[in-house]
Design a protein that fits this description.
By secondary structure, the protein is of the alpha+beta class. It has three domains: 3-160, no CATH class; 175-287, no CATH class; 315-402, no CATH class. Helices cover 34% and strands 18% of the residues. It has a six-stranded mixed sheet. A five-stranded antiparallel sheet has the order 7-9-12-10-11. Strands 8-13 form a two-stranded antiparallel sheet. A hairpin with an 8-residue loop joins strand 5 (118-121) and strand 6 (130-135).
Length: 404
């Protein structure tokens, strides 16, 4: 058993003692060393009490940091109304919540875990108990309802064992129902990006603000292109074919999306896979115009395009750039021409590459995988950028030192 396993075993053994669960005594609460480590725990003293709909644990660390009384917390939580929005996403949410053993942990963990103000921790301390951790400062902001709703979705979905990307997509979309600026802020964040990380990652933790933002906008893309509502609402009500505990693959989920869709564009293949979907999604981000001829790009309403130009020099990014599987990057045409004119530096079977030529009212997409770049002529009145997509199962490394 490795060190983490030993720590977890000690934790579970200690929690078996009845005195640990007494009111107003020391309880074990999680604290994280960094974003990638969910396995370390530390003892936190605090007080247990109840609001109308939540079991609450208020740590002494939060008491010192936020100076809130038990009544302050109870009144704040009792004033929130979750159920109308939650039940749009989770059928019979209020009835299901009664059967979930979840504790709302009001903690002051911002200095230990600065990248988050909330989290959901499943199977703590046993397989029947779960924790929603909230930084105590959230109780003083208008974001409290949206953050609790996000984490409550994780609690609801935990038995379904959905892919991590889909669980985050549902939780983020519900959060955006409570916080109308959430999707707007995600779009503003993406508008400054050149690199698109894979928004369909299935590894825990689902990390990175860029990945979260892209995942949320992909949810909006799916809604607009394939459904009047979010496809996962149909997914969660598709019993008995989708039962809690099933292990769903991306291929199964996208086949379900394609089969159930009533509004899928004509160019979408009957067998929809992850790579095809992401290719069209990335092209839609770059193009940002309606594809009148149904050639494979769907306009995302509300997406205003990029504020930053494509990458002109890889040297500015370090010694090399690593593209994970199913990720993409926006490249300046001249940089791409230099890169792909030099002795075929990357196996063409590992990627897809497109030249996007556009003007005010028209565009052209050129599949450039087999292009002779030296013969491609630029029109002076057009703008150009190149979309490079890693379609391999592993990372692609582009060395920066070779290119201007």
């Amino acid at each position: 058993m490795n060190l983490k396993g030993i720590k977890h075993f000690i934790l579970i053994s200690f929690l078996g003692m009845g005195s640990v669960f007494a009111e107003n005594t020391e309880r074990l609460m999680p604290s994280y060393l960094n974003d990638l480590d969910f396995s370390y725990y530390s003892a936190q003293p605090g007080t247990s009490f109840y609001s109308r709909e939540f079991n609450i644990f208020y740590t002494q660390r939060a008491v010192h940091q936020c100076q809130l009384s038990e009544n302050d917390i109870r009144d704040k939580l009792n004033s929130l109304n979750f159920w109308a929005n939650l039940e749009n996403a989770i059928p019979m949410a209020k009835e299901k919540w009664i059967n979930l053993d979840v504790t709302i942990a009001i903690d002051g963990f911002s200095t230990l875990y600065p990248s988050r103000s909330s989290y959901f921790l499943e199977h703590f301390p046993t397989h029947e108990k779960h924790i929603i951790g909230l930084d105590c400062r959230l109780l003083k902001t208008p974001l409290l309802a949206s953050k609790i709703a996000h984490e409550m979705v994780h609690a609801f979905l935990q038995p379904h064992q959905l892919p991590i990307w889909l669980e985050e997509m549902i939780a983020q979309t519900v959060e955006s129902d409570f916080n109308l600026d959430y999707l707007k802020n995600a779009k503003a964040y993406i508008a400054k990006m050149n690199y698109f990380p894979n928004p369909l990652l299935n590894k825990k933790p689902f990390a990175g603000s860029d990945r979260y933002a892209l995942n949320l906008l992909l949810s909006e893309y799916l809604r607009q292109a394939f459904f009047k509502s979010h496809f996962w609402r149909d997914l969660l009500t598709a019993a008995p074919t989708m039962n809690p505990g099933d292990d769903f693959s991306n291929a199964e989920l996208f086949s379900f999306v394609r089969k159930k869709s009533k509004t899928a564009p004509a160019w979408v293949p009957r067998r929809l896979d992850e790579k095809t979907l992401l290719k069209h999604f990335y092209l839609a981000l770059v193009l940002n115009q309606q594809d009148q001829n149904q050639r494979g790009v769907f306009n995302i309403d509300g997406w205003q395009g990029f504020q930053t130009p494509p990458v002109k020099s890889l040297r500015s990014l370090g010694d090399s750039i690593v593209l994970e599987s199913s990720s993409a990057i926006r490249l300046d045409f001249n940089l791409a021409k230099t890169l792909f004119s030099q002795n075929k530096p990357i196996d063409k079977h590992l990627y897809e590459i497109f030249i996007i030529e556009s003007s005010f009212n028209e565009f052209r997409i050129t599949d450039a995988k087999n292009l002779d770049w030296s013969t491609y002529v630029l029109a002076p009145e057009k703008t150009y950028e190149v979309l490079f997509i890693n379609s391999a199962e592993s990372n692609i490394v582009i060395p920066a030192t070779t290119y201007p």
